[in-house]
Design brief:
113 residues, 22% helix, 16% strand, alpha+beta, 3 helices, two-stranded parallel sheet
């Protein structure tokens, strides 16, 4: 990503935002950068900003059953279910469920409500 940004600047091409879309995470619902592929996200953001480029990260509203946050989110009722309480799953690169961002008691995953 940084090589692309540097090349845009070298060629004096206009670029104000770069987007990291999907699969930058270890698994869906972990909402962090995969350390193997993204070893120093803060340094990356700092360099992009020094080049006058903002970073946008696409965050999917899905949580894979293997995510460390899945049990907490399920216990708090933060996952989408049908009217009868059946969990709504999506089989896409893992067994995933949608995060219910409209849940009335939604809060940060730090435990505050």
């Amino acid at each position: 990503m940084l090589e692309v940004a540097r090349e845009y600047r070298r060629r004096n091409l206009p670029l104000s935002v770069m987007v990291i879309d999907f699969f930058h995470w270890p698994n869906q619902g972990t909402w962090c950068f995969e350390p193997v592929d993204w070893p120093d996200p803060q340094a990356m953001v700092d360099e992009l900003e020094s080049l006058g480029i903002k970073l946008m990260v696409s965050v999917w509203p899905t949580v894979e059953a293997r995510s460390p946050l899945f049990p907490q989110m399920k216990a708090k009722g933060w996952l989408v279910t049908s009217d009868r309480g059946v969990q709504v799953n999506l089989d896409f690169m893992g067994n995933t469920t949608f995060f219910d961002a409209t849940h009335r008691r939604r809060a940060s995953l730090s435990g505050r409500q």
